[in-house]
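Notebook, bench 3.
Goal today: get a predicted structure for LuxR family transcriptional regulator from Pseudomonas lactis so we can plan the truncation constructs. The sequence was checked against the plasmid map this morning, with no discrepancies at the termini. Length recorded as 254 residues. Pasting the sequence as submitted so the record is complete.
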Amino acid sequence: MLAKLTAFNNRLIPGRSLDEQMDNTFILAQQLGFDALVYDYSPVPIDLNGTLITPSLLQLRNTPADWHALWCSEGFYQIDPVQHLALSSVSPFVWSYEAKTETALQKIIDPCHAPVSSYLHERQLTCGVSVPIHLPKGGFASLTGLRTGKARTVLKDAQHTLADFSLITHALQEAAYPLFSKEMRAYPHIRLTKRERECLKWAAEGLTAAEIATQLSRSLAVVTLHLASAMHKLGAKNRVQAVVRATHYRLLEG
Protein backbone atom coordinates (compact mmCIF):
# COMPACT_ATOMS: atom_id res chain seq x y z
CA MET A 1 0.00 0.00 0.00
CA LEU A 2 2.87 2.39 0.79
CA ALA A 3 4.32 1.77 -2.66
CA LYS A 4 0.95 2.57 -4.24
CA LEU A 5 0.66 5.80 -2.28
CA THR A 6 4.13 6.80 -3.43
CA ALA A 7 3.16 6.10 -7.04
CA PHE A 8 0.01 8.20 -6.69
CA ASN A 9 1.90 11.09 -5.12
CA ASN A 10 4.59 10.97 -7.81
CA ARG A 11 1.91 11.28 -10.47
CA LEU A 12 -0.34 13.82 -8.74
CA ILE A 13 2.08 16.56 -7.73
CA PRO A 14 0.52 19.85 -6.58
CA GLY A 15 1.15 22.79 -8.88
CA ARG A 16 0.66 21.07 -12.20
CA SER A 17 -2.22 22.12 -14.43
CA LEU A 18 -5.64 20.59 -13.93
CA ASP A 19 -5.49 18.94 -17.35
CA GLU A 20 -2.17 17.34 -16.45
CA GLN A 21 -3.56 16.17 -13.10
CA MET A 22 -6.49 14.56 -14.92
CA ASP A 23 -4.22 12.95 -17.52
CA ASN A 24 -2.09 11.42 -14.77
CA THR A 25 -5.17 10.31 -12.85
CA PHE A 26 -6.46 8.57 -15.97
CA ILE A 27 -3.14 6.73 -16.37
CA LEU A 28 -3.48 5.45 -12.80
CA ALA A 29 -7.15 4.53 -13.37
CA GLN A 30 -6.26 2.61 -16.54
CA GLN A 31 -3.76 0.60 -14.54
CA LEU A 32 -6.70 -0.45 -12.36
CA GLY A 33 -8.68 -1.52 -15.42
CA PHE A 34 -10.94 1.50 -15.99
CA ASP A 35 -11.74 2.61 -19.53
CA ALA A 36 -13.08 6.13 -18.93
CA LEU A 37 -13.05 8.76 -16.20
CA VAL A 38 -15.46 11.48 -15.07
CA TYR A 39 -14.59 14.13 -12.48
CA ASP A 40 -17.06 16.79 -11.36
CA TYR A 41 -16.94 19.62 -8.85
CA SER A 42 -19.73 21.85 -7.54
CA PRO A 43 -19.40 24.54 -4.86
CA VAL A 44 -23.12 24.00 -4.25
CA PRO A 45 -24.48 20.61 -5.39
CA ILE A 46 -28.25 21.21 -5.11
CA ASP A 47 -30.57 24.18 -5.46
CA LEU A 48 -33.21 25.21 -2.94
CA ASN A 49 -35.67 22.77 -4.52
CA GLY A 50 -33.31 19.83 -4.11
CA THR A 51 -32.43 19.62 -7.82
CA LEU A 52 -28.85 18.80 -8.78
CA ILE A 53 -26.99 21.85 -10.05
CA THR A 54 -24.86 21.44 -13.17
CA PRO A 55 -21.28 21.29 -11.88
CA SER A 56 -18.86 24.19 -12.23
CA LEU A 57 -16.26 21.74 -13.49
CA LEU A 58 -16.68 18.52 -15.47
CA GLN A 59 -13.47 16.84 -16.59
CA LEU A 60 -13.68 13.79 -18.85
CA ARG A 61 -11.22 11.23 -20.13
CA ASN A 62 -12.05 8.75 -22.91
CA THR A 63 -15.82 9.28 -22.67
CA PRO A 64 -18.00 9.59 -25.82
CA ALA A 65 -17.65 12.96 -27.59
CA ASP A 66 -21.16 14.11 -26.73
CA TRP A 67 -20.91 13.38 -23.00
CA HIS A 68 -20.15 16.94 -21.85
CA ALA A 69 -22.97 18.47 -23.89
CA LEU A 70 -25.51 15.91 -22.70
CA TRP A 71 -24.62 16.14 -19.02
CA CYS A 72 -24.08 19.91 -18.86
CA SER A 73 -26.52 21.28 -21.45
CA GLU A 74 -29.19 18.63 -22.01
CA GLY A 75 -30.05 17.82 -18.39
CA PHE A 76 -28.48 14.37 -18.11
CA TYR A 77 -26.58 15.43 -14.99
CA GLN A 78 -29.85 16.14 -13.17
CA ILE A 79 -31.23 12.65 -13.95
CA ASP A 80 -28.01 10.69 -13.54
CA PRO A 81 -28.76 8.19 -10.74
CA VAL A 82 -25.05 7.67 -10.03
CA GLN A 83 -24.71 11.38 -9.26
CA HIS A 84 -27.73 11.26 -6.96
CA LEU A 85 -26.30 8.22 -5.22
CA ALA A 86 -22.88 9.86 -4.87
CA LEU A 87 -24.35 12.98 -3.30
CA SER A 88 -26.19 10.92 -0.68
CA SER A 89 -23.21 8.65 0.03
CA VAL A 90 -20.10 9.11 2.14
CA SER A 91 -18.28 5.99 0.98
CA PRO A 92 -17.01 4.80 -2.41
CA PHE A 93 -19.37 2.40 -4.18
CA VAL A 94 -19.55 0.05 -7.14
CA TRP A 95 -22.54 0.43 -9.46
CA SER A 96 -24.13 -1.23 -12.46
CA TYR A 97 -27.11 -0.49 -14.70
CA GLU A 98 -27.54 -4.19 -15.48
CA ALA A 99 -30.88 -5.37 -14.09
CA LYS A 100 -29.57 -8.75 -12.92
CA THR A 101 -26.79 -7.30 -10.80
CA GLU A 102 -27.08 -6.29 -7.17
CA THR A 103 -25.61 -2.85 -6.50
CA ALA A 104 -26.88 0.25 -4.74
CA LEU A 105 -28.05 1.59 -8.11
CA GLN A 106 -30.82 -1.00 -8.43
CA LYS A 107 -32.46 0.41 -5.29
CA ILE A 108 -32.95 3.91 -6.70
CA ILE A 109 -33.18 3.61 -10.48
CA ASP A 110 -36.59 4.32 -12.03
CA PRO A 111 -38.08 5.35 -15.41
CA CYS A 112 -36.96 9.00 -15.07
CA HIS A 113 -33.37 7.79 -15.43
CA ALA A 114 -34.08 6.03 -18.75
CA PRO A 115 -32.23 8.51 -21.03
CA VAL A 116 -29.00 8.09 -19.06
CA SER A 117 -29.42 4.33 -18.74
CA SER A 118 -30.12 3.87 -22.46
CA TYR A 119 -27.16 6.04 -23.40
CA LEU A 120 -24.76 4.02 -21.25
CA HIS A 121 -26.15 0.68 -22.41
CA GLU A 122 -25.68 1.68 -26.06
CA ARG A 123 -22.04 2.52 -25.34
CA GLN A 124 -21.45 -0.51 -23.10
CA LEU A 125 -20.48 1.69 -20.14
CA THR A 126 -22.92 0.20 -17.65
CA CYS A 127 -20.57 -0.51 -14.73
CA GLY A 128 -18.23 1.58 -12.66
CA VAL A 129 -16.95 2.91 -9.38
CA SER A 130 -17.71 6.32 -7.87
CA VAL A 131 -16.03 8.11 -4.99
CA PRO A 132 -17.93 11.03 -3.41
CA ILE A 133 -16.02 13.85 -1.72
CA HIS A 134 -18.01 16.11 0.60
CA LEU A 135 -15.97 19.28 1.01
CA PRO A 136 -16.01 21.91 3.78
CA LYS A 137 -18.75 24.56 3.51
CA GLY A 138 -20.91 22.31 1.37
CA GLY A 139 -18.84 21.83 -1.77
CA PHE A 140 -19.03 18.47 -3.52
CA ALA A 141 -16.83 16.52 -5.92
CA SER A 142 -16.79 13.00 -7.24
CA LEU A 143 -14.63 10.81 -9.43
CA THR A 144 -16.19 8.00 -11.43
CA GLY A 145 -14.34 5.28 -13.28
CA LEU A 146 -16.28 3.44 -15.99
CA ARG A 147 -15.67 -0.08 -17.25
CA THR A 148 -16.72 -2.04 -20.33
CA GLY A 149 -17.24 -5.78 -20.42
CA LYS A 150 -19.53 -8.37 -18.87
CA ALA A 151 -21.17 -6.96 -15.76
CA ARG A 152 -20.46 -9.84 -13.39
CA THR A 153 -16.74 -9.96 -14.18
CA VAL A 154 -16.40 -6.18 -14.29
CA LEU A 155 -18.12 -5.72 -10.93
CA LYS A 156 -15.91 -8.33 -9.29
CA ASP A 157 -12.77 -6.61 -10.61
CA ALA A 158 -14.09 -3.16 -9.70
CA GLN A 159 -14.78 -4.25 -6.14
CA HIS A 160 -11.16 -5.28 -5.78
CA THR A 161 -9.94 -1.89 -6.98
CA LEU A 162 -12.32 0.18 -4.82
CA ALA A 163 -9.75 1.07 -2.17
CA ASP A 164 -7.05 2.04 -4.67
CA PHE A 165 -9.50 4.07 -6.76
CA SER A 166 -10.57 5.91 -3.62
CA LEU A 167 -6.95 6.79 -2.84
CA ILE A 168 -6.49 8.11 -6.39
CA THR A 169 -9.64 10.23 -6.04
CA HIS A 170 -8.54 11.91 -2.83
CA ALA A 171 -5.02 12.44 -4.18
CA LEU A 172 -6.51 14.13 -7.25
CA GLN A 173 -8.80 16.34 -5.16
CA GLU A 174 -5.94 17.43 -2.89
CA ALA A 175 -3.73 18.30 -5.86
CA ALA A 176 -6.44 19.88 -8.03
CA TYR A 177 -8.41 22.02 -5.58
CA PRO A 178 -5.70 24.69 -5.13
CA LEU A 179 -5.85 25.20 -8.91
CA PHE A 180 -9.52 26.19 -8.86
CA SER A 181 -10.14 29.87 -9.47
CA LYS A 182 -12.14 31.98 -7.01
CA GLU A 183 -14.96 32.09 -9.56
CA MET A 184 -14.99 28.30 -9.86
CA ARG A 185 -15.34 27.93 -6.10
CA ALA A 186 -18.44 30.17 -6.09
CA TYR A 187 -21.93 29.41 -7.35
CA PRO A 188 -21.70 30.42 -11.04
CA HIS A 189 -25.33 31.04 -11.94
CA ILE A 190 -25.97 34.16 -9.81
CA ARG A 191 -23.57 37.12 -9.83
CA LEU A 192 -23.86 39.66 -7.05
CA THR A 193 -21.88 42.89 -7.11
CA LYS A 194 -19.50 43.75 -4.29
CA ARG A 195 -21.99 46.30 -2.90
CA GLU A 196 -24.89 43.85 -3.11
CA ARG A 197 -22.90 41.29 -1.15
CA GLU A 198 -21.90 43.87 1.45
CA CYS A 199 -25.50 44.96 1.95
CA LEU A 200 -26.71 41.37 2.27
CA LYS A 201 -23.93 40.53 4.74
CA TRP A 202 -25.01 43.39 6.98
CA ALA A 203 -28.65 42.40 6.54
CA ALA A 204 -27.65 38.92 7.68
CA GLU A 205 -26.31 40.54 10.86
CA GLY A 206 -29.77 41.99 11.49
CA LEU A 207 -29.14 45.57 10.38
CA THR A 208 -31.91 47.61 8.81
CA ALA A 209 -31.39 49.39 5.47
CA ALA A 210 -30.84 52.68 7.34
CA GLU A 211 -28.24 51.06 9.61
CA ILE A 212 -26.49 49.49 6.60
CA ALA A 213 -26.40 52.92 4.95
CA THR A 214 -24.68 54.33 8.02
CA GLN A 215 -22.25 51.41 8.17
CA LEU A 216 -21.25 51.80 4.50
CA SER A 217 -21.44 55.63 4.43
CA ARG A 218 -23.98 55.46 1.64
CA SER A 219 -27.42 56.97 1.24
CA LEU A 220 -30.51 54.99 2.24
CA ALA A 221 -31.70 55.14 -1.38
CA VAL A 222 -28.49 53.57 -2.66
CA VAL A 223 -28.56 50.76 -0.08
CA THR A 224 -32.23 50.08 -0.79
CA LEU A 225 -31.38 49.86 -4.50
CA HIS A 226 -28.56 47.36 -3.86
CA LEU A 227 -30.80 45.20 -1.68
CA ALA A 228 -33.61 45.31 -4.23
CA SER A 229 -31.22 44.31 -7.01
CA ALA A 230 -29.86 41.40 -4.96
CA MET A 231 -33.40 40.24 -4.15
CA HIS A 232 -34.27 40.30 -7.84
CA LYS A 233 -31.20 38.27 -8.85
CA LEU A 234 -31.95 35.71 -6.11
CA GLY A 235 -35.65 35.52 -6.91
CA ALA A 236 -36.39 36.45 -3.30
CA LYS A 237 -39.62 37.98 -2.03
CA ASN A 238 -37.95 39.87 0.82
CA ARG A 239 -34.57 40.54 2.43
CA VAL A 240 -34.76 37.58 4.78
CA GLN A 241 -35.32 35.20 1.91
CA ALA A 242 -32.54 36.91 -0.05
CA VAL A 243 -30.10 36.33 2.82
CA VAL A 244 -31.16 32.67 3.13
CA ARG A 245 -30.71 32.08 -0.58
CA ALA A 246 -27.42 33.93 -0.80
CA THR A 247 -26.11 31.90 2.14
CA HIS A 248 -27.26 28.61 0.57
CA TYR A 249 -25.45 29.44 -2.67
CA ARG A 250 -22.32 30.57 -0.78
CA LEU A 251 -22.49 34.05 -2.28
CA LEU A 252 -21.63 35.86 0.95
CA GLU A 253 -18.32 34.12 1.55
CA GLY A 254 -14.99 35.89 1.26
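The chain has two domains: 1-185, 194-249. The longest strand covers residues 127-134.
Flagging this for group meeting.
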